[in-house]
Amino acid sequence: MGPLFVAALFAAGSARIAEEMLQELAKAKVKASWVETGTPDPSDSVKLMMVLKRDEEKLKKLEEKFWAVSDPTSSDYGNHLTADELTDMIGIEDDHINAVVDFFESQGAKVDVGQHMDLVSIEMPISKAETTFSTTLVKYRHKEKGTTLVRAKDGVGSSIPAEMADMISLVDNIEGFPALRTSPIVEKTDTKSTAEATIPDAYDCNGRCPNLVTPMVLQDRYKLGDPVKGKTYGTVAVAEFQGVYWSQNQLNYFNEFCDVNATIDVQMGDNDPSVCDSSYEGNDCTEALLDIEYLRAVTGEIPTYDTYQDDYSLFYWAKSINDMSNPPLVNSVSYGNDEIQQPSKTYMKECNTEFQKLGARGLSVLFASGDQGVWGRTGIGSKYHPDFPAGSPYVTAVGGTDFATAGVIGEEMAWNNGGGGFSDYFDIPSYQADDVAKYLEMDGLPSSSKFNKKGRGYPDVAALAGTQNAYCVVTTNMVAGVGGTSAACPVFAAVIAKLNELRLKDGGSALGFLNPWLYQNPDMFFDVTKGQNGGAMSSSGFPATEGWDASTGLGTPNFEIMKTKI
């Protein structure tokens, strides 16, 4: 069954059937990356996350509060909820919680109820889980990465226990397979020729990073100014998953010649630095090292968290943040999959509620928009494949750029592989409605058959990401050039952390969910008007243009102006 057959179904009016087939094709492609390796020991444990059913009327109140505290034109702007206030607003009844806890404890599970009483994680023996969820659990290994996990056989075939059917909305980490993060684009650069280098030598980290993006390049281009001296204000975090670790030894090497203090102040979850300190170039530490090196290069000494989870689970990640009494105020997440690869619409809807909870508490959440252009991880087909969570209306999506002229610190253009487009599932939010409408009126857009003109447009903003002048990163004991929106996202998050620092120093609140403020102040960006994001088919993407566009959003940050708008 191929794209042409699916397109024919759309033409015949069978849109729903075609959509379901596309979803199955996308999920089958992900599943093909995992190989069954055997049966787990019945006494081994499996960890699962359950989202309890939440009252729709209470969720409406949550969303109303989310928008009110996030909109600078609202009288409630900045009046974020405390953890306890949010728990009260969601309002899961004690009888509901107790029934779920009692049931799973009776099945031999260890139960952990989240701060807001609507997420429940359990750990139980394989044999008990198979009986409880009416399934057969199997061990799988990723063909390329070697990552292992336990899932229902073939990724399907589990069911919520009948006794819990009215109390649980979904169970995460039992069905389906994650599409593992694509590694950042890495190019060895210790011996890189400087013959064509035009970035000033003074910016090259003592000669180690010729013609690469360094902290000094970012300082110049985005008008970052000097870090705040003395006491710091606020916090910032990076999220890592699936064996992506960091090492202070590698960071020290970067610090030494780029004159920064890249480090992690608070580690949440595991970390194995020995993996990063080996000479094995296939390790996955580059992602975390990139995040940390360039967060701290921009923020200075603002306390930095690393939140780590073995599984790529948005619910485990959100729970770990929300369970903290003082969670990091800015969160950079360089992970995602295509919308079409998600387990279900219910899954995405429940994720959106988690994003709203974080925003209502005053946290800024930024996701990278992806590194495969408009086609996403699913690849070339009859339609583009928008990203999730980047396509969620409740997060800030960060796209990617290159310098318009290689090596010249100045005008930028869209990076060809930067993710961007329009959601197939979420409508255009009000904060960008005028911008999207204007963009859709321009000439030169792709055929409307390839995307949803009524969908939420992304990215919202952008930063340098391409490999024309890649980022100078220390990884596996060497200097490398690294590209991707995995670079752009922590850089933009660091800019927000710097703005938070100024607000908090003056007694103000954190910026929280950013998008209404961003779209109300388009003049605080360097507008990107060149290039497009066709990815694998370089001429097929969304063009950059004046104002917002679906390849670079509102543009890249001009900190000098941004700090006047807070």
Write out key terms for the chains shown.
alpha/beta; disordered N terminus; single chain; eight-stranded mixed β-sheet; 566 residues; 30% helix; 3 domains
Query: For the CA atoms, what is the radius of gyration?
Result: 23 Å
Distance between the termini: 53 Å
Number of domains: 3
Low-confidence region ranges: 1-12, 190-195
Mean pLDDT: 91
From the 3D coordinates, which CATH architecture of the largest domain would you assign?
3-Layer(aba) Sandwich
What does this structure look like?
- With 566 residues, the protein is an alpha/beta fold.
- Helix content is 30%, strand content 20%.
- The N terminus is likely disordered.
Write a short abstract of this structure.
This protein is of the alpha/beta class and 566 residues long.
How do the strands and helices of this protein lay out in sequence?
Layout: H1 3-11, H2 15-31, E1 34-38, E2 45-52, H3 56-70, H4 83-90, H5 94-106, E3 110-113, E4 119-125, H6 126-132, E5 137-142, E6 148-152, E7 168-172, E8 185-188, H7 215-221, E9 236-241, H8 248-258, E10 266-268, H9 273-277, H10 285-299, E11 304-309, H11 314-322, E12 330-333, E13 337-338, H12 345-360, E14 364-368, E15 387-388, E16 396-403, E17 412-414, E18 421-427, H13 433-440, E19 455-458, E20 461-464, E21 471-475, E22 478-483, H14 485-505, H15 515-519, E23 525-526, E24 556-557, H16 559-562
Parallel strand pairs: 9-11, 9-12, 10-11, 12-14, 14-16, 16-20
Antiparallel strand pairs: 1-5, 2-4, 2-7, 3-4, 5-6, 8-22, 13-15, 16-17, 18-19, 21-22, 23-24
Helix pairs in contact: 1-2, 3-12, 10-14, 11-12
